[in-house]
Automatic annotation (TrEMBL):
It comes from Meridianimarinicoccus marinus. The lineage of its organism: Bacteria, Pseudomonadati, Pseudomonadota, Alphaproteobacteria, Rhodobacterales. It holds the Pfam family DUF1989. Residues 47-227 form the DUF1989 domain. InterPro entries: DUF1989. This is DUF1989 domain-containing protein.
Length: 285
């Protein structure tokens, strides 16, 4: 066991700095006002059955809303550019930019090299929850997704309704891709309604029963044309376990809305990231 240095306390006492100050982060050019929201027209509605996933399409400039129905339920969300599956939600950079849990005003960013907002959160009925006494909060971008590989590693067996498998099957059905190809497009999720944190003593990832109740919703503005997939996690409210058929599970609903005429005047889709991608090769300065 290495000895602590004599100045260990002083080194620990150094104050942290925020990795990515957000003052220069582009904010959404559009956030719906209540009057516009009340004039929205339902364009499509998708019910995600319990322990399954379903895909849905949202056009740039539409609103989509994930709603808890019937009972407390966590959802695992994947997003792709509807025209190019290579551009997909980057939960790690979203976490680095906005924090471990997201809410109103935060944006869901795509990966490199596009790194642009795919969607902006426009309403969160669980905004009131904040950070609880355990350090838990709602809608995390830390938990990756429940998957059969980790389950097999820790417990053995072959459970087929983890969110990873649900999302894989849903994407394969939607696109016609073979299962193995579809699986490669499934990525780390936004854990909608899930209540999570890290334990203070061991730093371990924890979950606790979600505070979500039927009627609660998380609403997004689509910044680009999106293909989404949502899994109703086999963990249900994720209060106990998440890779078995033991938990009470409920469906989720995804509603897509058209905004009223004129609401998007002056708004345009975010362009892809401006970095020149030379990476310093060829003697570039
Ligand atoms: Zn799950």
């Amino acid at each position: 066991m290495p000895q602590s240095p004599q100045d260990a306390a002083a080194r620990r006492a150094v104050a942290p700095v925020i990795c990515y100050p957000t003052e220069t982060l582009p904010r959404s050019a559009f956030l719906p006002e209540d009057a516009q929201r009340s004039q929205m027209q339902l364009a499509s509605s998708t019910t995600v059955p319990a322990r399954q996933a379903a895909c849905f399409h949202v056009r740039a400039g539409q609103i989509f809303r994930i709603t808890s129905i019937e009972g407390p339920q966590v959802g695992d969300l994947n997003l792709w550019n509807a025209h190019d599956l290579r551009e997909r939600f980057y939960s790690g950079k979203t976490r680095a930019l906005h924090g471990s849990h997201v809410s109103t005003g935060d944006r869901l960013w795509s990966g490199f090299p596009t790194l642009r907002p795919m969607a902006t959160i426009t309403r969160d009925t669980l905004d009131w929850y904040g950070i609880d006494a355990f350090g838990g909060a709602v809608h995390d971008v830390i938990g990756t997704r429940c998957d059969p590989y980790t389950h097999n590693l820790l417990s053995g067996g072959h459970y087929h309704h983890c969110c990873h498998s649900n999302l894989t099957r849903a994407l394969a059905t939607e696109t016609g891709l073979p299962l193995a190809e579809a699986e490669a497009h499934v990525h780390d999720v936004l854990n909608v309604f899930m209540c999570t944190g890290f334990t203070r003593d061991t730093g371990q990832y924890f979950m606790k029963a979600s505070p979500v109740r039927p009627g609660d919703h998380l609403e997004f503005f689509a910044e680009i044309d999106l293909l989404g997939a949502l899994s109703a996690c086999p963990g249900g409210d994720c209060g106990a376990e998440h890779s078995s058929d033991a938990a009470a599970c409920h469906p989720l609903r995804v509603d897509v809305f058209n905004l009223p005429e004129g609401a998007l005047d002056g708004w345009s889709e975010p362009v892809v990231n401006a970095y020149d991608r030379s990476h310093g090769a060829g003697g570039a300065p």
